[in-house]
Amino acid sequence: MMFAGVATAAPPGWQMTVDKLPATVSPGAPAGYRVTITNNGSSNISSLFLVDKVNSSLTVTPVYLTSSRPGTCNELGTLSGPLSCSFGALNAGDHVTVVVAYTTPTSGSSSSAEFQGSTSGATFSDTKGRSHGDTLQSDPIVTTTALNSGKNFAGGFSLSAGGFISNDANLNGNNRQSTGVKGLPAGFEATVEDGPGTTGTCTSTGPVPCTALFGEWSVVNVNGGSSVEGGFIVTIKFKNGTPTGFLHSFGNPVQQEAIGACPGGVAPATITDPGCFVWDAGTSTASIYTLHNGSYKGR
User: Fold this and answer.
1) Cα 107 from Cα 110, distance rounded (Å)
2) Which of 7, 41, 81, 286 could pair with 12 in a Cys bridge, judged by C-beta atoms 3.0 to 4.6 Å apart?
3) What is the CATH number of domain 153-298?
4) 62 preceded by cis ω (within 30°)?
5) Helix (H) and strand (E) counts in the chain
6) How far from 64 is each of 31, 75, 79, 98, CA to CA, in Å?
7) What is the widest separation between alpha-carbon atoms in the chain?
8) CA angle 63, 64, 69 (to 5 degrees)
9) CA-to-CA distance for 270 and 231, rounded, in angstroms?
10) Is residue 70 a contact partner of residue 41, using CB atoms and an 8 Å limit?
11) What is the DSSP string of 33-77?
12) Which residues of 46-72 are buried (b: 16+ CB within 10 A; e: fewer)?
């Protein structure tokens, strides 16, 4: 990170990073960003600020916003313009995190967000007197989220508890399977994908004969591949066929597990390994109650 400004002595060694949540979303869906500012220096920062600019606009209002320091940003409900945070002091070794999301354009190939931090010091901002009123501004960090409008893909950011993300559910000869994920917590990102190009792992030593599999692989990535406490629900709608179970491959090194029907055909009160599924014959949709990301295929 490079900084512009004049420092009279011992400027704070601060750093700003931005993570995309997720890297690719469906056009018109929310795209999330995690902005983390860390003070790696020996001087305390007496005042820290953060602003944004989205798709070259200074007036875009976030659709989701949380801060590790509540009340320091123009919180949702009172938002009427761009992100503006005033965090106060950031002591040496400390960090602050903001998670923010914006609605992406309904067309095009990408959506960008630009974040810029600034600081002001004070002569009393550290105990050894090494900071002397430094005022610094970061170079803007421009982060680009890709947009994918393909019928086999869906991606986005969950704005509220119970979020649902699904690709094209209008099945036909060219779209034989639809994958979704529901029950997402607020602030979680997810992508789903199926179709001829998706992959999973089935080996002869696995729990399911590979010749028994049918349909396409449904690839699910929730929370950047990390675990989700309490699990989530993968939905797979089929053009043809009725599954008696699923093969699930996940992890590195790859693990394989067989997923069977939930007892009594009823959704479990608590999701446990290896998960289970409920079949809805009326909609030709399986709901898989699982704790893991990865690839799923019917059998």
Assistant:
1) 9
2) 41
3) 2.60.220
4) no
5) 0, 22
6) 10, 9, 10, 10
7) 73
8) 140
9) 9
10) no
11) EEEEEEE-SSSPEEEEEEEEEETTBS-PPPSEEEESSTTSB--TT
12) bbbbbbbbbeeeeebbbbbbbbeeeeb
Residues in a beta bridge with 190: 156, 222
Distances (CA, A) of 231 to 107, 183, 261: 32, 8, 17
Return the structure tokens found at 47.
Answer: 């005042």
Is 57 within 8 Å of 92 (Cβ atoms)? no
Distance from C-alpha of 180 to C-alpha of 236, rounded to nearest angstrom: 7
The string of pLDDT tens digits covering residues 147-201 is 999 999 999 999 999 999 999 999 999 999 999 999 999 999 999 999 999 999 9
Look at residues 93, 7, 12 and name the one whose alpha carbon lies nearest to residue 46. 12
Amino acid at 236: I
Q: Classify domain 3-147 at the CATH topology level.
A: Immunoglobulin-like (2.60.40)
What are the angstrom distances between the C-alpha of 127 and each of 12, 47, 89?
Answer: 13, 16, 14
pLDDT digits (tens, 9 = 90+) for 105-157: 999 999 999 999 988 765 444 545 444 456 677 888 999 999 999 999 999 99
- Cα dihedral sign, 194-200-202-208: negative
Structure tokens at 112: 């960008």
- List CB contacts of 201: < 8 A, sequence separation 6 or more: 249, 254, 256, 295
Q: What is this structure's pTM?
A: 0.88
Q: Are 197 and 292 contacting, i.e. CB atoms less than 8 angstroms apart?
A: no
The end-to-end CA distance of the chain, in Å, is: 51
Paired with 222 in beta bridges are 190
